[in-house]
Amino acid sequence: MRNRYLDLLRFLAIVRVVVYHVTGWATLTLAFPAMSVMFALAGSLMAASLTRSGPAAVGRRLRRLLPSLWVLALVFVPAMLLSGMPMSPRVLLWLFPIADPPANNWGALALSIIWYLRDYLWFVLASPVAFWLFRRAPLPTLLAPYLLLVAIEVGIYPAPPVLREFGLYFGAWMLGFAHHAGMLRRLAGRVLYPVALALAVTGGAWIVGHPGPRGYDLNDNHLGNALWSAAFILIVLGRAPAGVAWLGRSRLADRAVTVVNRRALTIYLWHMPFVVALTPLVDVVGWSHQDPVGLAIRVVLVFALVGVVTLAVGWVEDVAARRRPELIPGGPVQATELADQPDTEGREQPDTELRDRPDERPAGATLGRAVVPPQRVTAARSDVSAG
After folding, report:
1. Mean pLDDT over residues 157-184, rounded?
2. What is the DSSP string of 333-360?
3. Cα–Cα distance between 270 and 273 in angstroms, integer?
4. CA dihedral defined by 18, 19, 21, 23, rounded to 10 degrees?
5. Prediction pTM value
6. Alpha carbon distance 297, 221 (integer Å)
7. Alpha helices for the chain (secondary structure H)
8. Distance of CA 27 to the CA centre of its chain
9. pLDDT tens, 288-337?
């Protein structure tokens, strides 16, 4: 059964990521911490899959995650090899990115969004153990990533980058576990709102006290990002509306949300190359990034180009999910398509499970910080490095 509210959140997150990469407006990261929201939604759906299928859910998630990456690699890896990237065994990381796959100078920037798949991959692999621990000790397991990040940021534990990423985004993933379990919805307002406020105030104070090279941009501040995003997630998931019936009254809006959800991974993977490619081209014709009209034109062009490539290769997401391929998603739902869906689909538990857990039933129901690692890209490129 679909939860259109989750679909709407993912739609807003994807659109926000693309607009941010074009404009570079740091305020967008504070107004809507999109990447943490996407990881929280993915964590909730991963928990639902583990509940249904156990560890076999890991293989299903990987099957749905990797083919879209392989299509991207099929285009860009040969281009990077032909333009100077050395051939090495590390190229195989483009098939299974448990670490940053190799790239040349222009590829490191255009494909910087691969960090999301790297983290997502690790989170999926860690989920069976994390879910087992969460079921037995929910609160300690939920707090563990945040405590790890605090220890890293204050200098107690000089952890490698991969553990810092766990501290930042696995906390959001675990909040998704809590959403699936109904913990967030069951929190009384007298608990949820003060906790969210405390997290937001603490995170905001840390951000103000530790500004990054782009000012108050969440992407430059791991601990501030984690705390601010946790507060946001507690509100948008813990106090989710019973339904979004108004969405169904607009055929255009409803179809747009469906299309973006069904093609979320394709849109995410392909938008950054267009942002990077268009930047020098639009500057030549005078569409400055400091001019609102120029920015608007850039945003429209990026979405248009992403739309074209989505029409061309977005159907791969249908094949990976074992759905009937569609050029433009959102047509009549086939009975065979009501089975388990990928994380980009916003699909909740089957009807039987929802009936057993009424607190999780979505009444009215009918997934960046694309940070370019500093060691790989110079500061001169930082204006398009976050998500």
Report:
1. 90
2. PPGGGSS---GGG-B---HHHHHH-GGG
3. 6
4. 170
5. 0.84
6. 30
7. 4-23, 27-31, 34-53, 56-82, 105-110, 114-136, 138-153, 161-165, 171-181, 183-186, 189-209, 222-238, 245-248, 251-262, 264-284, 292-313, 315-320, 351-356
8. 18
9. 666 777 788 889 999 999 999 999 999 999 999 999 999 999 876 543 34
